[in-house]
Amino acid sequence: MDSAKEANIKENRHILKCVAEAVLYCGRQCIALRGSAEQQHCSGNPGNFLALLKLLSNHNEKLKQHLEKPKLKNATYLSPQSQNEMIDVIGKHVIQAKIVEEVRHAQMYTVLADEVTSHNVELMPMCVCFVDKDLNIREELLEICTLPRITGHHIASAIKDVLSHLSIEIADCRGQGYDGASNMSSENLVRNMIDKMKYSVMFFTSSPKRELLLKEVVDKEAYSTGKRKPLIDLSRTRWAARHDAYSHFYSAFVFIIKALEVMAHGLHTEEYSEDVTSGWEGKYKAEAYGLLSGLQNFGFILTFLTVYQVLSHLTGITVKLQSTSLDIIEAFSMVDECNSDVTVDISEAVALYQDDLPSPEVIHQELKRWKLKWQAKSSHQRPSSCASAIKECDEMNVSEHLQTPENCMHLAVTSCECERSASTLRRLNTFMRSSMGEDRMSSLALIHTHYDMALDLDEAVDLYSKMHPRRLELMSVLMS
Asked: Using one digit for the tens of pLDDT, what is the confidence trace for 291-313?
């Protein structure tokens, strides 16, 4: 190979690797790439991508020369199109490809999906739960796709399309997990209670004057509520956060009633400042009167206290169950703290996964040998979960157990990973980036979500050069 040509290829690859580093940095930090003035030599904000490259060029002579005087003006790799192509390569063809390869190697997995609305568009973060080659339970974001509607038919079609596109066998799916909050919503008393509670929160928090009235009531009547805010809104997804909202509402209930009496009936006016007791318009008085009647209803009070007590009982376990490395057996043990009647029957697991076991008829003999192995050990020495049990299995003596616990490890306990991905969308798909396309958004979400994943940018450069060839030479004929 000609030495000059080899040096030229090496320099071009170095420049493209710097571009990849800038894209990766912006993606991981979840910051916008583009700016209002993206031309090289013009004033204004060039955007984070170009600004970062300019900063790197202060310590990189080759990159500085490329930014100031590129070899080819139509092959700079700095355009929005080149940015999108590099985002796609890193997100889909490096990160997603690694996850897909691990899922195929695991052979069994669980599908997790949730729906979220962003800028009037229905989106579905799709995750997979599987056991990697080191026998660790993993829950990973796989794709974010748009949905025309959030019916079961459209969700199922989207999941099958993603699995088919990524060449992941649907037959290897061993479990499914969906949030389905709209389908889980309670009716009648509970539903009405939740609506009244949310309306009460919005009634006060949406107006500075009404919120000031409530704050004055709380400050005058209570020594300390222990809360930074009298009221907080109910979380749509996280039940642990929802319990916090119920706790705030419970602590502030008597103060809410008194504040509504000030507005609706003009009571207690002498106890508070004139700024918050006078000047209420008729429509706000009517709203306060209706809300006061609803909150004093016996059915509302009884339902609220019942739900609050149930959530108080479950708040600890809901936080524990959100761990991404939790398997179904360990989850049952945690639930056992709340209900001592919960038991796990190994025969049910064998019946469910008998097609995955080479000889299910001998599983009970191997289970006896397994018990004999651990009966002489103390309780703290025995494995407490599938994840720890499978690492103690001896393939020569308990070969069947290498299958049964692993099947249980593939079963996701909750769909919290999808909710975390939805939180990623809140940071990523902001108002200023609401026009972002589905492919770009999904790739950036993969980059941001898998922040700590080790990536080989030389691999990204190789893939980019094959998928998007330009006039600059990036690979020799021998390399390609």
From this structure: 999 999 998 999 888 888 877 76
